[in-house]
Design brief:
single chain, alpha+beta, Umud Fragment, subunit A, 7-stranded antiparallel sheet, 5-stranded antiparallel sheet
Length: 230
């Protein structure tokens, strides 16, 4: 009367369904744990104002450390600031990539300094338009660059500097409150921890960063105030 073929088949199917549900639950648990681990060990808390308004102090940012060989212009990267420790060297910083290996970079100073880039292997010259910069110029309005990519305080015009093949030239979005390549020079690729990928916290601001509206605008040469020397 009981335990016929249909009952046996039903019990087997229910057992199989239970196994599937169990595996799904396990995979989901492992994924959640992976996210938690990544958030704890692959992220950092923003400190300081150098990347405002893109990043604000106290935000939690997830880093992508797996694509350092695919860094593009205007990416946000975390790296170790070069230079002596007493001047900030050794600190983890986040900046926006402006100059890639082989690019030429320059800044023409004044009340409204302008950043120029000539891409590697090209004679074309572009102005870097960052919507965050104009309202945040501050006192950092010198010319650039010395051969190491830093400000030239005594220069009467902007001078091209070439980014080495193993480095980047980076700037903060908060122009007047950022210590960046203008101060510490080129950022070695070997010292880049990864690209800023996601804003984890606060929860209401969760998401990616995009390019921040930063763009290259081609300009005619020669450029006023920019030395023609390579």
């Amino acid at each position: 009367m009981f335990g016929g073929p249909r009952s046996v088949r039903f019990a087997a199917e229910r057992g199989a369904a239970g196994v599937v549900v169990g595996w799904v639950a396990l995979v989901a648990f492992l994924l959640v744990m992976a996210v938690v681990v990544a958030a704890l060990f692959g992220s950092f808390t923003v400190k300081g104002r150098s990347m405002e308004p893109t990043m604000v102090s106290g935000e939690r940012i997830l880093i992508d450390p797996l694509h350092n060989d695919d860094i593009e212009r205007f990416d946000l990267v975390q790296g170790v600031e070069p230079g002596p420790e007493r001047f900030g060297g050794g600190m983890q910083v986040v900046k926006r990539v402006i100059g890639l290996p082989g690019d030429r970079v320059a800044i023409v100073g004044g009340e409204k300094p302008v950043v120029y880039v000539s891409p590697a292997g090209s004679a074309d010259v572009y102005r870097v338009d960052n919507p965050a910069w104009p309202a945040r110029i501050g006192a950092e309005v010198g010319m650039c660059c010395e051969p190491d990519g830093t400000y030239d305080d005594d220069a009467a015009s902007g001078v091209w500097a070439t980014v080495p093949g193993d480095s980047l030239w980076v700037l903060g979005d908060n122009w007047g409150g950022s210590t960046d390549s203008r101060g510490f020079g080129f950022l070695p690729l070997a010292d880049v921890s990864g690209k800023a990928w996601l804003r984890l916290l606060p929860a209401g601001a969760f998401g990616g960063f995009g390019d921040g509206g930063v763009e290259l605008v081609e300009v005619a040469v020669p450029v006023a105030g920019l030395d023609v020397r390579p």
